[in-house]
C-alpha cells in the first residue's frame, strides 16, 4: 500500500509538472510560470511583498502614503504625463511640441538617464513638473524595502541635482506597487501617481490622427494620461499625434495641468503639506 501510494504520488507529481511545463509554454511563456512559482516563496516580512520591515520602529515619515489614478473633479482638467526619459531620442521633440502649444506636463524621470542627459531638460521645465520613476527602470516590486528606498533615493538626488527641482511624486516602473514600494514611498514622503488612461499606440499603427481621436474621445475630467517620451518606434504614433490631441481636447473645453495642479484643484492633500 505504501509503495503503491508512493508510485501514485510520483505519477501525480510528474503529471502536474507536465501540465505546469505545458502551460508555461503557452500564452505568456515559461518565464511567467517560473516567476509565479518563485513568487509563492516570497518572505512573509521584509521582502518585496511586505510593507513592513520587521519588529523595530517603522521609519516611514508621517506614516502614510496615498495612491492616485486620477482626480475626482467636475472641472475639465487633464494631466498629461510622460514616463521613462530623458533621452535624446524623443524628449526634445516632446518638449518642443509642449512649448509650441503652451501645455504643461509631468515628466516621471529615470534617475540614471537624468544623470546622463540632464542638459536636455535644463531651462525647459518652467511650466512642467518632474516625478521619480526609479533609478534604472527596474521592477521595484521585486525588491525589498531597503533596496527600493536606496534606488528611489539615488534617483531623487539625481533628479534634484540634474534639473534643480526635487520630485515629490513617484510612479514606479510598470505601475507595480509591491509592499516595499509603499514602504519606501511613505518613508520618502512621496505621493504615488498611476494613471487612468493611456496611449494605445499598438492599436493605431501608422495612424497618429486616429490615435489622437481615441484619446480626445476617451478623456474625462480629472484624467491622468500616460505617455512615453522614449521607447521603440511605435511610440511615435502618439507623439506625432500630440498636436491633434492637444487641439482636440481644448476643443472639448479641457485645460492641461500638471498632476500636482490637478490634485490641488480637486482638493486632494499634497505631499509634504
From TrEMBL:
InterPro entries: Glyco_hydro/deAcase_b/a-brl (IPR011330), NODB_dom (IPR002509), Polysacc_deacetylase_ArnD (IPR050248). GO terms for molecular function: hydrolase activity. Its EC number is 3.-.-.-. Keywords: Hydrolase. Residues 76-257 form the NodB homology domain. It is an enzyme of class 3 (hydrolase). The keyword Hydrolase applies. The keyword Hydrolase applies. PANTHER family: GLYCOSYL TRANSFERASE-RELATED. This is Polysaccharide deacetylase family protein.
Amino acid at each position: 500500500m505504501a509503495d503503491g501510494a508512493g508510485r501514485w504520488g510520483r505519477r501525480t507529481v510528474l503529471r502536474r509538472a507536465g501540465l505546469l511545463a505545458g502551460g508555461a509554454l503557452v500564452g505568456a511563456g515559461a518565464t511567467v510560470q517560473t516567476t509565479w512559482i518563485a513568487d509563492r516563496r516570497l518572505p512573509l516580512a521584509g521582502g518585496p511583498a511586505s510593507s513592513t520591515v520587521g519588529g523595530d520602529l517603522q521609519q516611514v515619515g508621517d506614516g502614510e502614503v496615498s495612491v492616485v489614478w486620477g482626480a475626482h473633479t467636475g472641472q475639465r482638467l487633464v494631466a498629461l504625463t510622460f514616463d521613462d526619459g530623458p533621452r535624446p531620442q524623443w524628449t526634445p521633440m516632446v518638449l518642443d511640441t509642449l512649448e509650441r502649444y503652451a501645455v504643461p506636463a509631468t515628466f516621471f524621470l529615470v534617475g540614471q538617464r537624468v544623470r546622463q542627459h540632464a542638459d536636455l531638460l535644463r531651462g525647459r521645465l518652467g511650466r512642467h513638473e518632474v516625478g521619480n520613476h526609479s533609478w534604472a527602470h527596474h521592477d521595484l516590486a521585486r525588491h525589498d524595502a531597503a533596496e527600493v528606498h536606496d534606488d528611489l533615493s539615488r534617483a531623487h538626488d539625481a533628479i534634484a541635482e540634474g534639473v534643480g527641482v526635487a520630485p515629490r511624486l513617484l510612479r514606479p516602473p510598470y505601475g507595480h506597487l509591491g509592499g516595499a514600494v509603499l514602504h519606501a514611498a511613505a518613508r520618502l514622503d512621496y505621493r504615488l501617481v498611476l494613471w487612468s488612461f493611456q496611449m494605445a499606440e499598438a492599436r493605431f499603427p501608422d495612424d497618429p490622427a486616429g490615435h489622437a481621436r481615441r484619446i480626445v474621445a476617451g478623456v474625462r475630467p480629472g484624467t491622468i494620461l500616460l505617455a512615453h517620451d522614449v521607447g521603440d518606434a511605435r511610440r511615435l504614433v502618439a507623439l506625432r499625434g500630440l498636436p491633434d490631441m492637444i487641439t482636440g481636447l481644448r476643443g472639448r473645453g479641457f485645460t492641461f495641468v500638471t498632476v500636482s495642479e490637478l490634485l490641488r484643484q480637486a482638493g486632494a492633500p499634497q505631499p509634504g503639506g
